[in-house]
Amino acid sequence: MDDYDKLSQSLNSGGLEAGLRFLNQRVNHRFTAIYRLEEMVLHNVELVDKVDDDFDHSSLQAIPLGDSFCQFVLRDGLFRTSRTTGMDMLNGHPYQSVLESYVGLPLMSAPDKMFGTLCHFDFGEQPLTDEEFGFLQRAARLLPRYLQG
What is d(CA 67, CA 49) in angstroms, rounded to the nearest whole number? Predict the structure, then answer.
């Protein structure tokens, strides 16, 4: 069974949380999440924190689109960086240097309907290999059938 089949099996047996845990175990990033875009605000649908399940995630529950890195995913089709510090395009962004690493992809609920984003992020620098990014792209195409709405 390849890793894509293992992801499918995780999703089928344990839902989104199990699928995100599977994805999160593959990377060094602390967080893996799905956000739903509603009226210019990103609402957390599911979030996995590999470091501390008791961490207060309330600040990550609803984020205005303009304050998020997800805005670049929705604008450009992806956003991937292992180091936000020093990125000119992020100058003045409230999370530049706070969240140092971010990898995000769009999630579509229908071929022409944006649901939101799938992302890995971390307070520290966490590079992502091209191979793992490719796997995340495949996962982003699989996940919509497990989303509601």
Answer: 21
